[in-house]
């Protein structure tokens, strides 16, 4: 009897030491979810770590696989040896209508705790989020509310999982009274129109998502406020009309002014006021082109006068006669035989006679027909010089001395 008691005592001490060596498992498991975003969180007593570093492992499996005991069960790891007391399950992309079992285990210095488990069904347990966006648009005295569906983690509409999802709209007139009467309405469409509101009054709107199958409802969106519109007064319409007319008139005036300025510049460039001379205008093509053309033979006859080219008159050179034919350097005197003789002028002339001298010479020549051979030769020379002198006087309009 004492031996049996001794064995039982040893076994009890062994069980006590073994139980004290085990770590306590995590507790108070829950999932924070919103649409298809899931995060598993838990609690654990830090005093059980015994100055060691604690880590946690999270695994999951579809619950229907637990019913088949004949097959070996394989768990999938969601988070392994993490020091955080949470595990993000969104990346697992769990089937929304499925049921899953999660389990968490603590580990400190090689010692492990038991598994703490919980079941989770996204369709039933996941919270429903509010609309992703709400916009207001006044239409006169009416107010249009544009609602965007709640979005999943893959940016798709939650109506893919909840076909009967609808919205509850809460609206009220903004005033100093915080307890102003609030009205609600429901709609399955994404556009809601609030009608019969007060004109030029500010209204606030807040929207909530709802799903009645599991009695899901989201939080309300932050209030949005906007002022309604109303009929525009006639004087405001008339003022807008006058303003539009003035703007239109100014625009047309600027357009016409710019057009005239451009037209004036183009005209001055291509059609200048200074015209070409008639001769150069004729050189241009008869079709109106400004490109000059060459003159033909008929054109040159029409433009140019007839010109008669005469040869240059020969220059008559009169040389001094030989010495034997020169008269004596004396004036014309009556000698003893009754004949006149030529006297020298005494001025050293070389035989050049002026117009007066030529006339005197002619008178002497007409009065003395009975001169000798020398006098006749001198008269011929004077006549020739007189004709040449007259021709040169006409040509040059001056007096030209000649040598005889």
Automatic annotation (TrEMBL):
The keyword Transmembrane helix applies. This is Fibronectin type-III domain-containing protein. It comes from the Eukaryota. The keyword Oxidoreductase does not apply. The chain crosses the membrane at residues 237-260. One of its GO terms (molecular function) is interferon receptor activity. InterPro entries: FN3_dom, FN3_sf, Ig-like_fold, Interferon/interleukin_rcp_dom, Type-II_Cytokine-TF_Rcpt. Residues 360-377 have a biased composition (Polar residues). Residues 320-377 are annotated as: Disordered. It comes from Eleginops maclovinus. Residues 130-231 form the Fibronectin type-III domain. One of its GO terms (cellular component) is plasma membrane.
């Amino acid at each position: 009897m004492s031996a049996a008691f001794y064995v039982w005592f040893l076994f009890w001490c062994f069980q006590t030491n073994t139980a004290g060596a085990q770590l306590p498992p995590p507790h108070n498991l829950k999932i924070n979810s919103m649409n298809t975003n899931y995060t598993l969180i838990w609690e654990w007593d830090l005093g059980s770590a015994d100055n060691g570093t604690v880590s946690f492992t999270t695994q999951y499996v579809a619950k229907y696989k637990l019913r088949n005991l004949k097959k070996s069960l394989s768990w999938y790891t969601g988070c392994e040896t993490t020091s955080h007391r949470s595990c993000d399950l969104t990346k697992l992309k769990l089937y929304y209508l499925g049921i899953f079992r999660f389990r968490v285990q603590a580990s400190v210095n090689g010692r492990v705790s038991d598994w703490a488990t919980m079941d989770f069904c996204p369709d039933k347990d996941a919270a429903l989020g509010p609309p992703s966006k709400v916009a207001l648009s006044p239409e006169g005295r009416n107010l249009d509310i544009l609602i965007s569906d709640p979005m999943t983690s893959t940016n798709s509409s939650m109506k893919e999982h909840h076909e009967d999802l609808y919205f509850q709209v809460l609206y009220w007139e903004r005033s100093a009274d915080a307890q102003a009467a609030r009205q609600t309405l429901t709609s399955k469409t994404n556009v809601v129109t609030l009608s019969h509101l007060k004109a030029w009054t500010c209204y606030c709107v807040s929207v909530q998502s709802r799903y009645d199958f599991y009695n899901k409802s989201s939080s309300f969106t932050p209030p949005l406020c906007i002022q309604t519109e109303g009929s525009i007064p006639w004087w405001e319409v008339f003022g807008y009309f006058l303003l539009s007319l003035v703007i239109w008139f100014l625009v047309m005036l600027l357009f016409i002014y710019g057009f005239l300025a451009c037209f004036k510049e183009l005209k001055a460039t291509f059609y200048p006021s200074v015209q070409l001379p008639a001769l150069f205008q004729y050189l241009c093509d008869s079709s109106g082109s400004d490109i000059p053309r060459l003159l033909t033979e008929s054109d040159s006859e029409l433009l140019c006068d007839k010109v008669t080219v005469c040869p240059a008159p020969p220059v008559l050179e009169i040389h001094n006669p030989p010495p034997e034919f020169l008269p004596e350097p004396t004036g014309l005197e009556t000698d003893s035989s009754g004949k006149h003789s030529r006297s020298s002028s005494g001025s050293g002339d070389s035989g050049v006679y002026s117009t007066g001298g030529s006339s005197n010479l002619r008178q002497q020549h007409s009065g003395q027909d009975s001169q000798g051979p020398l006098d006749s030769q001198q008269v011929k020379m004077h006549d020739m010089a007189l004709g040449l002198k007259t021709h040169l006087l006409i040509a040059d309009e001056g007096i030209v001395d000649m040598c005889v």
